[in-house]
Amino acid sequence: MYKIAVAGTGYVGLVAGVCFAEVGHEVTCVDIDEEKVKLMKSGVSPIYEADLEELMKKNYVAGRIDYTTDYRSAYKEADAIFIGVGTPEQADGSANLSYIAKVARQIAESVEKDCIVVVKSTVPIGTNDKVEQYIRDFLVHDVKVEVASNPEFLAQGTAVHDTLHAERIVIGTESKWAEDVLMKLYEPFHLPMVSVTRRSAEMIKYASNDFLALKISYMNDIANLCELVGADIEDVAKGMSYDDRIGSKFLKAGIGYGGSCFPKDTKALENVARQHGYDLKTVKAAIDINKEQKTKLYEKASKRLMTFAGLKVAVLGLTFKPGTDDLREAASLENVPLLLEQGADIYAYDPVGADSFATLYPEGEHGKGRITYVSHAEDALKEANVCFIFTEWEEVKQIAPKQYDTFMRTPLVYDGRNIYRLDEMKAAGVEYHSIGRASVK
Ligand code: UDX
């Protein structure tokens, strides 16, 4: 078993650390935030993620995982140091690598024995060559350090499961030594391993995420055409899904993709291509379609209603997808400001994300509009003139079609997630607009 240090305790770092401990490695997670470290030591996860707290507690008690702000002690004698810090998007779409650089410098100053530095963060192709050079330039002790790439494919909400049961582990190394260490380190997971060069590993991450983003944008593009030609995107997706070459996943049309990965990674790869003088047309199209898709329903509703001013607007779902409290690039963030600007009186419901949303849009007046947060979906619907569905939470899916008619002043629903069947909404007397399907009146 190996002695592992993990830099950064966000989704990527913390989940990786906990899963390494779970398979028996000795793990120390490093974060700069004292409060966060205290919290994690007491078994509380700073992020909302299924199974995470349970495994944090179990492995902490077993002495396999610890948390610290003292990076020197954590890195000093580690066999492998995983970097899972953020690479946020900058104004020009490129990835901000300052957090990685900072950790690399700390590693260089701390390591006292040969070790592999494994970059899990998503970084532009070629970055790990630079990280390696940077660490070697600043090394204090005479030790061998090699940088490896080990991109992460976990999805939020199922992060622990995705890590323990990953479809593949990709490792990118430049020496037999680094490859062997990583192969052995991952052995207890019993998962398929793909061992390639560092640059190919970096590219696999972007190419995979951007392909999925493209798949969603393609379906949204086709959905928009379906509406115009009188076809139904749900039926179309079903018909496509039987073809193994297409597959049945990620064919769901909706209000556009959000989250921490697809929006960022599409822009980052497009940026890499541009820097190399290459026009990455497919990915550019995915980005453009996604941008327009997010406000599609708002545009439709604006045409249907004379104004939002003074209307009670129910908003169901604020997070970018169910099972997470993450709001990054969520459709709600595009639509709520537009509605407020128009003077809407919003009643928002989200089983998990309301508190984070309220830090951006506190309850009360915002210009001509106002926003109130409610703990039950039906309180949002009561007397509402119009309802927008942005996230397909189970709690939202459980609202029976008839309830829109019962609770709302006018049962007018704009569903960005195609939760309901058209016939059931029609039978319940709801005017229903969704994505890529006929409207029901
Ligand atoms: C994604 C990838 O799935 C993961 O492999 C990668 O490591 C990080 O990015 P995540 O962002 O957590 O994970 O969520 P995911 O479930 O993939 O959904 C992303 C967005 O796409 C959500 O907004 C979701 O609503 C949307 N989506 C997904 C669709 O609109 N249609 C689909 O068919 C699938």
Automatic annotation (TrEMBL):
- What domain of life does the native source organism fall in? Bacteria
Q: Does the keyword field hold Membrane? A: no
Species: Halalkalibacter wakoensis JCM 9140
What is catalyzed by this enzyme?
UDP-alpha-D-glucose + 2 NAD(+) + H2O = UDP-alpha-D-glucuronate + 2 NADH + 3 H(+)
Q: What does the entry list as the binding residues for substrate?
A: K205, F250, L251, K252, A253, G254, G258, K321
State the name under which the record lists this protein.
UDP-glucose 6-dehydrogenase
What EC number(s) does this enzyme carry? 1.1.1.22
Matching entries from InterPro entries are given as: 6-PGluconate_DH-like_C_sf (IPR008927), NAD(P)-bd_dom_sf (IPR036291), UDP-Glc/GDP-Man (IPR017476), UDP-Glc/GDP-Man_DH_C (IPR014027), UDP-Glc/GDP-Man_DH_C_sf (IPR036220), UDP-Glc/GDP-Man_DH_dimer (IPR014026), UDP-Glc/GDP-Man_DH_N (IPR001732), UDPglc_DH_bac (IPR028357)
Q: Which UniProt keywords apply?
A: NAD, Oxidoreductase
